[in-house]
Specification:
80 residues, mainly alpha, 5 helices, 72% helix
């Protein structure tokens, strides 16, 4: 379901697919696919996807990119 919906441009489906790939739920864990789906959801305006991209950048030592993602996420209504 999520794959089909994501293919039709559903940003929530993109975000959900990212989580499936992150934790390996029903699919094999795949960091590249996780990030790709987060990016697509973030481009579509999903604030939680943008927030998670920030954490990914932070964990990779990219502080400036992380902060940029979090600022955009906050502007979109993410309040964590």
């Amino acid at each position: 379901y999520f794959t089909r919906a994501a293919g039709l441009g559903d940003v929530e489906a993109q975000f959900q697919l990212a989580g499936l790939y992150q934790f390996g739920r029903g699919v094999e864990k795949d960091k590249q696919k996780e990030i790709r789906h987060l990016e697509q959801a973030a481009i579509g305006g999903h604030p939680d996807a943008r927030f998670n991209l920030g954490w990914n950048e932070w964990n990779n030592g990219n502080t400036e990119k992380a902060v940029q993602h979090w600022i955009i996420s906050a502007a979109q209504g993410q309040d964590e």
